[in-house]
Write a structure and sequence with these properties.
The protein has 340 residues and is α/β, with parallel strands linked by helices. Helices cover 52% and strands 7% of the residues. InterPro entries: 4pyrrol_Methylase_sf, MazG-like_dom, NTP-PPase_MazG-like_N, NTP_PyrPHydrolase_MazG.
């Protein structure tokens, strides 16, 4: 329950904030911020020092997740929401007051302190912003997981989706990502990466509900982490690799051992676009050092196959090359439709 009133420290005076000419020490205000993405109680050492040496510790939110851990550590926390004037008054006589910020960051209080400081009427205490916990890289992914949990539970559309029903969106989002990359649009790239990431989180959330073989986003992440570590012994182990080709060769060899494949063609999705499929087959053949003659029947399909193999050998993505040519063709069509 949030307190609605505040009383200053007993010896801080009750006559209002100290005047500019007052000889009393102005004291110190420490605004302590924490991240909700870090487990409560895991605070920095400077934060614990500030809390233990403070004359008063205040928090406007009685349900703040840090409060049980602070009190367990012997920190007395008053549930209070002082005005800027009351807070300055409480610091009179050299007192230190720590304010444990709520999730919003106490904008009303900080704005009030800024107004007081700008008025020139008040001898302000020292003001310090002290981050008590920091987000690690990737911390916002936790927000995405939490948002997805709520959407899955409360949204009439999302709560009814299945892996099968969402499959087409995964393909669409992947193509939109490729388009953003080829267009060189950085803003669009960031957005499309988010859309692709959403598909991963959405499918993982659905998978949690499977009655027989459930798995979570943590299982998904754990699987790919283990795979990356295992397939990069030149990074995480004792092996060495000096060229991208050596890395790729080891990757394919390790994958074949993991999956016990008897052919380099295993694991290639046959439902991908035809040019990409042909280039992938050619890449596997080249990497394996095989000599496989191309079938030659003179039909258009085999001519396209030969072009895709040639493109792969020259380091060209045939799908991307064809899309680029198609864009030029599209522009030519538009110019013909609208001359001048």
């Amino acid at each position: 329950m949030n307190a609605t009133s505040f009383e200053g420290a007993p010896d801080a005076g009750r006559g209002g904030a100290a005047s500019p000419g007052s000889g009393a020490a102005p004291g110190r205000v420490v605004l302590l911020t924490t991240s909700h993405r870090v487990a409560p109680g895991l605070l920095s050492w400077p934060a614990w020092q500030a809390l233990r040496t403070a004359d008063r510790v205040l928090c406007a939110d009685g349900a703040h997740p840090q409060l049980p851990y602070l009190r367990e550590a012997g920190i007395s926390v008053d549930e209070a929401s002082p005005t800027a004037e009351e807070l300055v008054d409480a610091c009179g006589g050299g007192h230190t007051v720590v304010v444990v910020a709520t999730g919003e960051g106490e904008p009303a209080l900080t704005d009030g302190l800024a107004r007081l400081a700008g008025s020139g009427r008040v001898r302000m205490p020292d003001l310090e912003l002290l981050p008590a916990s920091y987000d690690l890289p990737g911390a916002r992914l936790l927000d995405l997981v939490q948002v997805m949990d709520r959407i899955r539970a409360e949204c009439p559309w999302s709560s009814r989706q299945t892996h099968q029903g969402l499959a087409k969106y995964g393909i669409e989002e992947a193509y939109e990502l490729v388009e953003a990359i080829e267009d060189g649009d950085r803003d669009e790239l960031r957005e499309e990466l988010g859309d692709v990431l959403l598909q991963v989180v959405f499918h993982a959330r659905i998978a949690e509900e499977d009655p027989e073989t459930p798995f979570s986003i943590d299982d998904v992440a754990g699987t790919i982490v283990a795979k990356l570590v295992h397939r990069h012994p030149h990074v995480f182990g004792d092996e060495t690799a000096s060229t991208p080709e050596e890395v790729k060769e080891h990757w394919l060899r390790t994958k074949a051992q993991e999956k016990r494949r008897t052919s380099v063609t295993e694991g290639i999705p046959l439902h991908q676009p035809g040019l990409a499929l042909a280039a992938k087959l050619a890449s596997r053949v080249r990497t394996a050092g095989l000599e496989v003659p191309l079938p030659d029947t003179g039909s258009i399909g085999y001519e396209l196959l030969a072009l895709a193999v040639r493109a792969e050998a020259e380091g060209v993505d045939p799908e991307a090359a064809l899309r680029a040519a198609a864009r030029v063709y599209r522009d030519a069509i538009r110019e013909t439709e609208n001359p001048g």
